[in-house]
Write a structure and sequence with these properties.
heterodimer; A: alpha/beta; six-stranded mixed β-sheet; four-stranded antiparallel β-sheet; globular; disordered N terminus; B: two-stranded antiparallel ribbon; 14 helices; 4 strands
Chain lengths: 263, 375
């Protein structure tokens, strides 16, 4: 479907208008027929996906379903082949990633990517220095380190931290931007049970106490069940199911695509 | 070392002020954050200041050239070492600035004209970097492709300048001269007629040294500032840094332009030093020298770039000829394979702590008075 088709579709124009005028104020993020082709491969196939303010939504689906691509389209790391992204009622499709961050979207990548050469304190300072100075900056940096459970390790190079500590530090850095929407790509992959629980507890707290909306890509069903309100299932680059976590868990169709049965 | 916060105590005013100055100059992005380092720095400075009195004018002129090259080394250190952009094109900005200085100063050979040529030359280097950088970074060119494009730019300029022998390549009084280059570029002069600073070998040495020390300290302040932290973050992970709300393309362009200005400064000082520019500055051998200096000294260290540039050039110049190039090339290989971080960071992280341990164990072994490190 070409861009022309999208804009001439009355339904989509309607949605865009509603978003732009703020009629659906509880919708924080919405994608309209968002498509990304890599050569001949369609990674996301005209996806309509939305997130309400303050909700905690998990994004699941088999490998290759298009989850990471969708996140990268939301952050602006990828340019879509067609379709639009709306955030807070504005079309942000043409914005660069850093401009989207300034509007309140933050993301933690799949691979822990703290700055290994920098100390924990330097890491924590980087996002905060953009908007806080002096004593206020020190307070926020200390708070971010404390929240990541790294008090006392301020002067350690981040590369020396364990995998779990790096994940915690990075979530802390993403959260210190005080975003309205935080995207997490497999935050607990490769972590042990205790570390998973710590991350789950952290995410839930940020969601409930600070009202940050989350989109979390995760394979671990227990983890999903422990944090999510709502679940979106992606399959073959499109939304397959959406609904409350209990409903999705017991959906035989969802189990079938995860087990790789024919469809 | 990190808690240099005694600066706040009102009891010692001068030490407090010194502490504040040091807090700008020191940080995790530079080597040499101790009182001992600054003492050594001062001693080195005094020695360099005394050097012209101990030797002849020829030697002074020779060492001045190494200082001139040090700006070129520093330019690559901030661009590559701090912002992660490996450029083979620093000599482009060096050469463009040198030629610009030459053309203007030959045409306006008065102190005011030469001063103008100095400024326009440096700005020319910066402008060239800004244009090249804009198309690269905003065109989405990254990593090794930047290296290739900058290298090709160097070679293109070499070919271009080498064919400027004809009369049509005479700008006013100044003939570009093709392969033979551009002789009769005047010495540097700053100011206006009647009230101008002019330089002989020895005063030029002091001028370049002072400029170099000032630039080194200024760059230390830069890389240890908030902006320096962003530069390092861009070097470490562009995508991540973007997701903290930083405009990575603009950061790279800004640093690249600053690097162009620094390389340009080097080029202008070079042209005024030798009264000569030639397409040789765009040759592959010269283009690879900054990469060698910075790799050997330690690309993530300004001091490394500074020390290695001066050291390697001293060595290369003393030895002379093709053999020097072979040895310097071999040096690069040895360092990339054996000590990829470079000499200066190795000294800072391994050698100095090792020496300190030895000294400490010796003094405690002798049951001497407590030798607690003050820093």
């Amino acid at each position: 479907m070409s861009t022309n088709d999208v804009t001439s579709d009355p339904d989509i124009r309607q949605t865009a208008a509603e978003l732009a005028t703020g009629d659906r104020t509880d919708t924080l993020l919405a994608t309209d027929e968002l498509r990304k082709d890599f050569g001949g491969f369609t990674a996301t196939d005209d996806v309509d996906f939305s997130v309400k303010a303050g909700e905690l939504r998990c994004l699941i689906g088999p490998n290759g379903a298009g989850k990471s691509t969708l996140l990268n389209l939301i952050t602006g790391t990828y340019e879509p082949t067609a379709g639009s992204v709306y955030y807070n009622g504005h079309d942000i499709t043409d914005l660069d990633p850093h401009q989207r961050v300034k509007r309140g979207i933050s993301m933690k990548f799949q691979v822990p990517s703290v700055y290994g050469d920098l100390t924990v304190r330097e890491n924590a300072r980087l996002p905060i220095q953009r908007f806080a100075d002096g004593a206020e900056r020190r307070r926020r940096v200390d708070a971010a380190i404390e929240a990541a459970g790294l008090a006392g390790s301020e002067d350690v190079d981040a590369s020396q931290l364990s995998h779990g500590q790096q994940q915690q530090l990075e979530i802390g850095m993403a959260a210190s931007l005080e975003p309205d929407l935080l995207l997490l790509d497999e935050p607990v992959a490769g972590l042990d049970v205790a570390e998973r629980e710590a991350i789950a507890e952290r995410v839930t707290r940020l969601n409930e106490q600070e009202g940050i909306a989350f989109v979390v890509i995760e394979h671990d069903t227990d983890f999903v069940a422990s944090i999510a309100d709502e679940v979106t299932v992606l399959h073959n680059g499109d939304v397959f199911r959406e609904g409350p976590v209990e409903e999705i868990e017991s959906d035989p169709e969802v189990q079938r695509i995860y087990l790789g049965g024919e469809h | 070392m990190a808690t240099e916060t005694s600066a706040g105590s009102p009891a010692d005013g001068s030490a407090g002020r010194l502490g504040r100055v040091r807090s700008y100059l020191e940080g995790p992005n530079t080597v040499g954050n101790s009182r001992q380092f600054w003492a050594g720095f001062l001693v080195a400075l005094i020695a360099l200041a005394a050097y012209p009195m101990l030797t002849n004018s020829y030697q002074v002129g020779r060492v001045t050239l190494f200082f001139v090259y040090a700006f070129l080394g520093l330019s690559l250190s901030i661009v590559w070492g701090y912002a992660g952009v490996l450029s083979f094109g620093q000599v482009v900005f060096f050469g463009v600035a040198g030629y610009t200085f030459g053309v203007i100063s030959v045409n306006f050979a008065t102190p005011a004209g030469i001063t103008g040529a100095f400024v326009v030359g440096v700005l020319g280097g910066a402008a060239m970097a800004a244009v090249l950088g804009y198309f690269m970074f905003y065109g989405g060119v990254r990593d090794v492709y930047v290296t290739i494009i900058t290298l090709v730019s160097t070679l293109v300029l070499h070919t271009f300048m080498a064919q400027t022998a004809g009369d049509e390549w005479t700008i006013g009084e100044a003939a570009l001269g093709g392969f033979n280059g551009m002789p009769t570029i005047p010495n540097l002069a700053l100011g206006v007629e009647g009230a101008a600073l002019t330089f002989d070998n020895v005063t030029y040495y002091y001028f370049v040294l002072a400029l170099l020390v000032g630039m080194y300290l200024a760059l230390r302040v830069l890389v240890n500032s908030d902006y320096g932290r962003v530069m390092v973050a861009v070097r470490e992970d562009e995508d991540r840094t973007q997701m903290f709300g930083y405009n990575v393309k603009r950061t790279k362009l800004t640093v690249f332009t600053l690097g162009g200005a620094l390389a340009g400064l080097s080029g202008v000082l070079y042209a005024a030093w030798g009264n000569y520019m030639s397409p040789g500055v765009f040759e592959l051998t010269f283009a690879s020298l900054p990469v060698i200096w910075v790799s050997v000294g330690g690309r993530k260290s300004l001091l490394g770039a500074l020390a290695a540039t001066i050291g390697i050039e001293y060595f290369r110049n003393s030895l002379g000829g093709e053999l020097a190039f072979v040895i310097v090339g071999a040096l690069l290989l040895v360092f990339i394979l054996g000590l990829p971080g470079g000499i200066v960071p190795w000294v800072d992280e391994k050698l100095v702590p090792w020496l300190q341990r030895i000294i400490q164990s010796r003094s405690t072994g002798a049951a001497a008075a407590p030798t607690e490190e003050t820093d």
